[in-house]
Amino acid sequence: MFDYLEVLLDYFKRYKFLYNYGLIPSAVCAFICAIISTIIVKKIAVFFNIVDIPNARKIHTKPIPLLGGIAIFSGFIISLLFYNYKYGALIIFDFKFIIILATAVFMLIIGIIDDIKHLKPLTKLICQIIAAIIVVFIAGVKIDFFRYNIINLIITICWIVIITNSFNLLDNMDGLSAGIAAISLFLFFIIAITQNEYNNALICLLLSFSAAGFLLFNYNPASIFMGDGGSLFLGFFVSVIAINNSYLKFSLLTRLPILIPVLVLFIPLYDTLSVIFIRRKLGISIFKADKRHFSHRLVNLGLSQRAAVLIIYLATLSTGITATLLTKLTLIDAIIIILHTFMVFGIIAILEWYSFKKNDNNI
User: How far apart are the first and last CA of the chain?
Assistant: First the structure.
C-alpha cells in the first residue's frame, strides 16, 4: 500500500513540470486549435465533396465529411509552435523529431490520398514500411532489447507498421480511434514524466489534447471523420513515441517495464489480431473491410455504439493506468499487473467467443 502512495507522491512532484514549463497553456492551445481547425476542415471537406459514403459495411447512414486528420495535425503543430515561441524551455525541433514529424506527415498525406482516391491496401502497407524504415535508419528510433541489432531493427519496423495499421483498423466507429489515441498518448505522457523524458512528454500531451479537441466532433453521432489520413497519422506517431520513450531509466526491475507499450496499446493490438483471426477462420481476405472488429462484436452482444466505445475506452484505461506503475514497483507487483491485464482480456475474449459462435453467420 505504501509503495503505491510513494509512487503517487512522486507523480505529483514531477507534475510541477506542467507549470514550470508551460505545458498546460500549450495543451489548452492544442485543444482549442484542434476545435477551430475541425470546424474549418469540415467546411472544406463538404465544399470539395470529400465525404465518406455509407455502404453495407459501415454504420453511418448519411455522408460524413472526411479530412479530420488535418485538424488533428493542425492543432498539434500550432501548439508546438506556440510552445516554442512562448516558452522554448525544451529542445523539441531537433533532427530526430523533424524526421519523425516528416514521416508522420507523409502518412497523413498517404491517408488523405486514400480518402480521395482509394488506394489499394498493399500500396498503403508499402508506404507504411517505407516510413518505418526512414524513422529507424535515419532518425535512429529502435528498440534495444536483444543482443543482435538486426533483430531489434526488424521488430521495430514490424511494431510501427502493426500499430499504425491497428489505429487505422480501429477507426470503425464514431470516436473510437481518436479516443483511444488521446487516452494512450496521455498515458505515455504520464510515463514520460516519470522517466524525465520531457520532450516526449510534451509531444504526447499536445497530440493527446489535439485528438481530444477533434473528438468533440467525432464522438457519436460524429459530424466529421478523421479518415485514413488521421488514423494513419495518429497510429504512426503513437507507434514511434511508444518506443522512443525510456522505460528502464528508474526501474526497480530488470526488463519487465519494456512491456509498457504493449499494455497501453493492448486494445488496438487485440482488435487487429482478433479480426485477422476471425477473417482467416471464415476464409476471407484479411484486407477485406467488414463489421467484425472488437467494437462491432460488442454491439453484437447487445450494446449500443456509445456503450461499446465507452467500454473500449475503459478497457484501455484499465490496462494502461496500471502499466504506468511498472517502472516503480517490485517484481511481484509488476507480475500482478501483467496478470491483471491478461485476465481483463481473457474475460472479454470469452464473451466475444460466445458471441462469435452465436452469430458466426453475420458478425
Answer: 44
Give the span between the Cα atoms of 46 and 44, in whole angstroms. 5
Query: At 302, is the pLDDT very low, low, confident or very high (cuts 50, 70, 90)?
Result: confident
What pLDDT score was predicted for residue 358?
A: 62
CA–CA distance, 303 with 308 (Å, rounded to integer) = 6
Question: Are 244 and 199 in contact, with CB atoms under 8 Å apart?
Answer: no
Three-state SS for 286? coil
Residue carrying the nine cell digits 513540470: 17
Of 151-155, 233-237, 264-268, 340-344, the one with minimum mean pLDDT is 340-344
3-state secondary structure of 51: strand
Are 32 and 213 in contact by the 8 Å Cβ rule? The answer is yes
C-alpha cell at 249: 531509466
Question: For residue 220, what is the DSSP state?
Answer: S
What pLDDT score was predicted for residue 248? 58
CA-closest candidate to residue 161, choices 103, 235, 72, 228: 235
Q: 63 by DSSP, 3-state: which? A: coil
CA dist 297 and 9 (Å) reads 40
Per-domain residue ranges of the chain: 2-358
3-state helix, strand, coil in the chain (%, to 5): 75, 0, 25
pLDDT 10s digits, 34-43: 999 999 999 9
Considering only CA atoms, give the Rg of the chain: 20
Residue 2: Cβ-neighbour burial (10 angstroms; 0-12, 13-18, 19+): exposed
- Give the 3-state secondary structure of residue 21: coil
For the segment 348-357, what is each residue's pLDDT rounded down to a tens digit? 777 777 666 6
pLDDT of residue 198: 82
- The grid coordinates listed for 84 are 516554442
